[in-house]
Write a structure and sequence with these properties.
- By secondary structure, this protein is an alpha/beta fold.
- A hairpin with a 5-residue loop joins strand 11 and strand 12.
- It has 23 helices and 20 strands.
- 39% of the residues lie in helices and 24% in strands.
- A six-stranded mixed beta sheet has the order 6-7-8-3-9-10, sandwiched between helices. The protein has a six-stranded mixed beta sheet with strand order 16-17-18-13-19-20, with helices on both faces.
- Helix 19 packs parallel to helix 20.
Length: 550
């Protein structure tokens, strides 16, 4: 009589879980009165904006919460055992054996001085009586099971020798090698390109189905939710506002917060450009033209001889004033290499980079100084882009002052720019850590605009942001472009973002352009097999979202 009940019992139950924030926080609780269950073989997606409590719940289930975040109420039941009462020794016994975790950034989660095989083997050494030969055989079998090529080579490789997707597969192998009942995946595909993301999602679903593992999957991407979830839990400021089956939540959300999140998802269908916009672009001057731009790296092989790697080759396109050109492609396709060559952060090996008619490809460092202000970049991670020891005001005025502007004028312009990016000018004396991720990205945009650039390069500038914040920043970029008539080079791996913001799209693969054309035409009728594969891999491509269709 007990067997059926045991088989259907949840692998994880959060019962009215409460976790406090330190004094001085923006609210009393990081998580307040949250109840969620994860059944065997079920994938529950936990969604919400940054600060909603998603990762706090994940770390609490692993027993990895910082002491500053005490559990003040409720229970966390793992296969019938309340782990809020478990000792640290007991928690160590449970990790990997009954509960595994995949982190967002495998490069920081993996040990850089241990081979990947040794890191997976460490899990077996700590938790099983297997001898070295048996462990090695099991690790190699697991590496093969996560669809990595040449398991022997992967075993002997260090993390830096693998791609991002391969590193994430190693993390999955580590998390699942002991077949835990529960897998927690904390934003495991956020930093991956669409094709790698699709492969990782398919792999997680495949292994989860095969092993009947319960999965708590944390994400801010509703495309991922559409592809992988069975059930969806929506968190806002630490509280559960909606919980239900995936189709019910995506097609008929009940809470206004859920509706807002879903409405923020960029549509995969590009809007039709107005006739006036097309006419204006046709007569606008060309701000940037590249012609057969290339970047090659020569490397010495440990086996002797030299090897040439073409990071970019024969890249040709142009951007007019007021136009946004997007570059899309997988990691390693050459997108960021092209951007850095154009900004002369790295030296191009060949070709022309004409900025307002001047070829800057071969300019010396001294000659480039006068031209630097004409090209500005907004990078992916605003926290790393800003000096944590400088107020944001000092960061914004640094560039203009370096080019001769007085401090008083630079500060006056900084106040205007803060208004322009919809931030309070009185916040100029605050430091980067005192702002949210979306606010920091707005500050980076203001800093770039302070130089009055002719070309703005956005290198994955919204890929790390929540969908709602992403929507706000994209709208801001569009408004700034319309107001300032900027030429924008927009690099992204998210095709939905490219669909909404770009006039033209360039598709790159292995350092070369494989397709180039107007966004609406490319999305409606891609010609190249690689472009078609990218579109096929886009998360949530076939799902109709309430408020996000068309």
């Amino acid at each position: 009589m007990n067997t059926p009940a045991a088989a259907t019992a949840p692998v994880l139950e959060l019962r009215q879980l409460g976790i406090a924030l330190p004094k001085g926080g923006d609210r009393a609780h990081a998580v307040n009165n949250v109840s969620i269950t994860v059944a065997p073989g079920e994938i529950v997606c936990l969604v919400g904006e940054s600060g909603s409590g998603k990762s706090v719940i994940a770390f609490s289930a692993m027993g990895l919460l910082a002491k500053a975040l005490p559990i003040v109420g409720g229970q966390i039941i793992l296969q019938g055992e309340d782990i809020t009462r478990a000792s640290e020794a007991r928690l160590r016994e449970l990790r990997c054996v009954r509960i595994g975790m995949i982190f967002q950034e495998p490069m920081t989660a993996l040990n850089p001085v241990m081979t990947c095989g040794d890191q997976i083997d460490e899990v077996l050494r700590e938790h099983t009586p297997l001898d070295a030969a048996a462990r090695r055989a099991k690790v190699l079998a697991m590496i093969e099971q996560v669809h990595l090529p040449d398991p022997q080579r992967m075993y002997a490789s260090y993390p830096h020798q693998l791609s991002g997707g391969q590193r994430q597969r190693i993390m999955i192998a580590m998390a699942l090698i002991l077949e835990p009942a529960l897998l927690i995946a904390d934003e495991p595909t956020t930093a991956l390109d669409v094709t790698t993301q699709a492969q990782i999602l398919k792999l997680i679903r495949e292994l989860q189905t095969e092993r009947q593992t319960g999965v708590l999957f944390i994400t801010h991407d509703f495309g991922v939710v559409a592809d992988i979830a069975d059930k969806v839990a929506v968190l806002k400021f630490g509280e559960l506002v909606e919980l239900g089956p995936k189709d019910e939540i995506l097609r008929n959300p009940q809470h206004e917060y859920t509706r807002m999140l879903i409405a923020s998802v960029p549509s995969p269908t590009p809007p039709a450009p107005s006739a006036a916009h097309l006419a204006a672009l046709a007569s606008a001057p060309v701000v940037l033209r590249t012609e057969n731009l290339g970047k090659a790296y020569k490397t010495d092989s440990i086996f002797g001889g030299k090897r040439t790697v073409n990071a970019a080759r024969q890249v040709s396109f142009q951007i007019r004033k007021g136009e946004t050109l997007g570059i899309v492609g997988e990691s390693g396709s050459g997108k960021s290499t092209v951007a850095r060559c154009i900004a002369r952060l790295i030296e191009p090996s060949e070709g022309v980079i004409a900025l307002s008619g001047q070829d800057i490809a071969q300019r010396t460092v001294r000659q480039m100084r006068a031209l630097r202000q004409k090209v500005q970049i907004v990078f992916q991670d605003p926290y790393r882009s800003l000096n944590p020891r400088r107020s944001v005001g000092e960061s914004i005025i640094e560039g203009p002052m370096n080019y001769g502007m007085s401090r008083s004028q630079a500060m006056a312009e900084a106040r205007e720019l803060m208004n322009l990016v919809r931030l309070d000018p009185d916040a100029l004396d605050r430091y980067p850590h005192q702002f949210s991720g979306g606010q920091r990205q707005r500050i980076c945009i203001a800093r770039a605009l302070a130089m009055h650039p002719e070309l703005l390069i956005c290198d994955e500038a919204v890929s790390a942001l929540d969908v709602s914040v992403q929507a706000q920043v994209l709208k801001l970029i569009e408004e700034l472009q319309a107001k300032l008539n900027l030429a924008i080079l927009f690099i992204t791996h998210d095709l939905r973002v490219a669909a909404q913001i770009c006039d033209q799209v360039v598709v790159m693969s292995k350092g070369e352009i494989v397709e180039h054309g107007p966004t609406r035409e490319m999305f409606a009728n891609p010609q190249h097999a690689y472009t078609k594969a990218l579109f096929e891999a886009a998360p949530g491509r076939s799902m109709v979202f309430a408020g996000a269709a068309g």
